[in-house]
Structures are given as C-alpha cells and as structure tokens.
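<goal> How does this chain fold?
<body> The protein record starts here
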Amino acid sequence: MSQKVIHPINEEIRANLLSLRSDGLKKGKWSGFAELYEHYTVKEGGTTYFIAPPAVGKTAITYELTMNLAEYEGCKVAIFTPETGSPVDVYNELLWAKLREPFLKHNGGTKTEKEVNDAIDWVAEHFFVIDPMHLDLTANSYFKAIIDLEEERDIKIDIAVIDPMTELDIYGEGARDLALGNFLTRVRRFSSMYKIHTMIAFHTKAIQLVEGTDVNGQKVRFYPPPQMSDIAGGEMASRKGLFILGLWRPPLNVIDVDTGLPYKANETRIEILKAKPKALGKVGKVSLHYDIYSSRYYQLGEGDKPIWSAPKPYHMEDK
C-alpha cells in the first residue's frame, strides 16, 4: 500500500524533474483571448470555479470559453447545465455560439443548410450534454456518467462543466459545509485522476449593495463584483479551488471610479481571484463584451474595435 501512496524519487521522477528544470512550467490551454491568457489558462486535471450572481452571463461565458477550447485546442466537453433547459435547448445555444448567429431562422439565422449541418457535426464531435432531467443526479453518478461516456464512445473528455453546482445533489453526507468540502475534494481527485479540467459555477448568496454615481450625477446602488466570501461555503471553495473567477456585469451608466468613464453597456468583468499553480495565470481583471446577435464575446481594441476570439498567435506558441 505504501508504494501506491508514497513516491520516493525514482528514475522516472528524476527524469521529470530534470525536464522541468530545463523546460520550465508551461501555461495551460488557450481559451481565445490574449489578455485573458496572461491571467487564466486551462490545465488538464485542474479546476475552475466561477462565482456569479444571477443574470451576469455566467453560462454564456462558459459557452465562450469551452467553444474556444474546442475550436483552438480540440477539447471535448461534457456539460451539465439544467438552467438552460433540455439537451435540445443546450445544443441550440451551443450552435448559436458556433454559427455566430441565431440557430433558429425566425431569430435571424441566415446560414445555409450545409453550414448548419457542418456546425451540428462539429458540435456533435466536441460537446456532450448530460441530461438535465435527471434531478437526482449526484456527484458520484455525474462522475460515472463521464467515465461511461468515455468508455462507450472511446473518447477522452477534456472539460467537464457543472452549471450551477446547486443543481447537483451533493448533500447526502450531512451538513452543507461538510458535504461541500467532500464534494470539492472528490472533484479535485476526479479531475486529477482522469486528467479532466472541471468547471463549476457557483451562485452568490445575498450581497450588500454599494453606492456609485451615474452619468447624470445621481447616486445609484448596485451589487459590487463578487468575492469568494459571497458564496455559501466560500471558505471551503477558496481552499480547494485552483482557479477561481468572479464574474460581474457593471451597472449601466454608472461611472467607473478607476477610469472616470461610464461602464460599457455590454461589459462582463472576469476577476481572477485565485490562480494556482502560479505558472498557469495570475490574479487580475479582464473585460469581455457580449454581442447579442452572435451570442459571443469580444475584447476591445484601439478605438473600441472588437477583437474576437482567435487561435493562439505564433509568437505565443512557446509560452
């Protein structure tokens, strides 16, 4: 038993250490945006926790990141997102993002039938929806569903999404904090063992309002950016999470005290609250902007020109 738990330095570990010394730690997978890459990358076997109040676009952000990871890194994604609806509803949203226009014709879809069927084939290759109608889905059955999927399809799942965590029954082990801690420990072990990056969305609990000033000089009260303490069991999540990202939609027409300018109407701020291991990213803030028609995000370039997601630039390939 000790040989399975304790790992003294052997020839394999020595070789890995010397390789690490020579090559250094590498960043994780590219999720589409250069500025985000400086702060956040996706590593196999790791975890990302999203902290967000309702209606800030956490599901749309998840779609953006996983779509880019599938397109630019070839990732396969298992996704559990009951709040979106049935599997058909989820695939509709994914196809909207893939096509960069509404999938439904009456919503403005203009792609040819060939383009649509090619998109369906691509989504079928990269995304696998876990049936949200299984209301009794537990942590164990969720993990088993992914393992069964890999075995049945002879594929490797790279990203597993739980959006949000409250839709998964994890409370079979007693008190909330204890159950949450045990669940997150299992998530970390499962991710590491099967080399899957697990993304989990957490809703915030009640947040105290803060006061700002709008463009007309009027006082406005709004919810501030979420912090780790703003989720139930936040201390447990902060200990066990590797990457923790707070999502925030700034209030319309309110002045940003850092810039003296009003917040953008379609802005979503991603605040990296924790980044571990440190070689994969760093704490900081990145803004993405949502385009309703394409259901995709972009960064702002010079003159507020949209910069859409793109493959990793050649000069960054060695990072």
User: Anything to note?
Assistant: The chain has nine helices and twelve strands. The mean pLDDT is 87. The two ends are 39 Å apart (CA to CA).
